[in-house]
Amino acid sequence: MSVTSGGADTRPVRWRAGASRVAAGTALLTAVALLPWLSGTDPALTVLRARSADQDPTPGQLAAIREQLSLDEGPFTHLVHWLGGLPRGEAGTSWVSGEPVLPQVTSAFAVSFTLMLGALVVTIAVAALVCARTLHLGSRRRLRQARAGTGAAVLAALPKFLLASLLATVCGVWLGWFPSSGWEGPQAMVLPALALGIPSGAMIGGLLDQSLPAAFNEPWARTWHAFGFSTGHIARHALRRTLAGVLPQLLPTVVALVGGAVAVEKIFNIPGLGRLALDSAVAQDLPPLQTATLVLVLLGIAAGLLIQALRHALLGPALRDGALPALHPPALPRQRVTLWVAGFCAVALLALVVSGLLRDPLHVDTAARLLPPSTAHPLGTDALGRDLLARLGHGAVRTAGVALAVSAASTLIGLLLGMAAQVGAGLTEVAATLPAVLAGLLTTAVTGPSVWGAACAVCLVGWTPYAAQTAALLEQERASGHMLASISFGAGRRYLLRHHLLPAVLPAVLRNALLRLPTAVLVLASLGFLGLGEQPPTPEWGRLLSENQPYVELAPWTVLGPACALVLLSVLAVSGTALGRRGTRRHTPGRGTERRRLPAVRSRPGSPPGRPRAPGK
């Protein structure tokens, strides 16, 4: 890891990044090819059950399937044959249906890609709404108080599959505004795009809203305001300055929806690529699973290269020349309401947990099925008559503990791989589009179904947002003027790492990790719902949501308690972070001297004297 180079020297060597992409893609395809043999289940038995679930397998039938599919040749022979057919436009035939694979994958990819574009539009719109207030006040030099980001945290904590069920019930069934199922016409895309885009937009908007005050605090912004530049002009350039650091989050947040929106695709009955990959993995149907995985890998690499090109275009020559101004957030006082919000969330969450611990979470009463909230059952009962408050309280420690462990491990892995940009760039692009469900199947094949096996699966793909953010922030920090000044003064690698790089990266990455904490809970829940993680009847918040999701229309209170607990946990984490950095400013020894030696504004050659120049131009 190099920490002393800047400008053009900080770009990852292209051949190393390309080699990492090839190596990561090859490793993933090899792991997928080994899935039937790693699981310990006879592939012939799984394929026979997928073809005819009611048929009792006999030794003769299993032997016929092994001979038909050449299973005795082993996984690597199948992988070589499959790769050899790709240059000819052949991806084999499905082991279950016997139909050609390529038309299935092409059709599913077209559906998922269209859905991703719709979700991207919603993401951009929601992100714009989240940071609109900061843009408006910052461009007018009226930022007086820092925002805690509780609104973005609430939207980001909404479970996508629960939001999808609610939209399908209210807007599709009750009101009849849009189709609640199927994929016919542009109207069918509206509800699933909203379900996927609202939480993603809140995530992106929250990160952007936290970065904008630092851009408005730069010398060029103050100078432009004094020169009488329009507020819209200042806001656009501040957005351009901060967008470069947030743009890499689109790769793991939005692009991954092509393969990761399995639950939403099932709720709306959408024939997407994620659903195809999951069904193929469950049936151990290798040809469509390998082809879908290859498409996801190529999509991740293409999206990563596109995002990198957009970042360089936004930052301009300043990134190449090492003349990029550093972002220093102003020491704005926190709103008093932030303390009250954090206190309310802590008290409410503690009250729910303590009250639930005093009840029996496993007591089944079939005569009390789906009862609404009452004095006897404050949060109601589930489909088996179990008290939801008891299950919520007993699952709190396990849910929060596993989610925190997964988030901490993912953050650490992301930091390390983000700092090793030459190796981590290709690996991040490949892993970002890998569905967590597929990672869960690969992990469970080795470890067996367990909560820690599911945690390992989430860690396999959960580090990508932090690696992408770390790499982007480090690239900008290495190209800053004060970094080059420290190098010219003889600063070593340890000093640069301790006083420049880590202070520039850690606060933003930790805020991102806390904002994504409910996401870790929901991904663990989806794996448990598929039998890959926490097994019933263990009470766990995500499992409560998954188990009671079919009863949203009939008994909405069955999911209200776990959803509110997730929102309280997310808001508490974000508010606590905001209070923790209250009145603080990033500072390193000697940085004030270095910043004063850098010009506040620069003039474009040939322009009138004193005319400000936008950052990155």
TrEMBL record:
Keywords: Cell membrane, Membrane, Transmembrane, Transmembrane helix, Transport
Domain ABC transmembrane type-1: 392-578
Matches recorded under InterPro entries: BP-dependent_transpt_permease, MetI-like, MetI-like_sf
Ranges of Pro residues composition bias in the record: 606-617
Keyword Nucleus found: no
Regions crossing the membrane: 21-39, 108-132, 153-177, 189-208, 246-268, 288-310, 337-358, 396-417, 424-446, 452-474, 513-534, 554-579
A Pfam family that the UniProt record links to this protein: BPD_transp_1
Stretches for region Disordered: 580-617
Membrane-topology annotation of the record: Multi-pass membrane protein
Subcellular location: Cell membrane
Family, similarity comment: Belongs to the binding-protein-dependent transport system permease family.
Protein name: Peptide/nickel transport system permease protein
Organism of provenance: Streptomyces umbrinus
Record lineage: Bacteria, Bacillati, Actinomycetota, Actinomycetes, Kitasatosporales
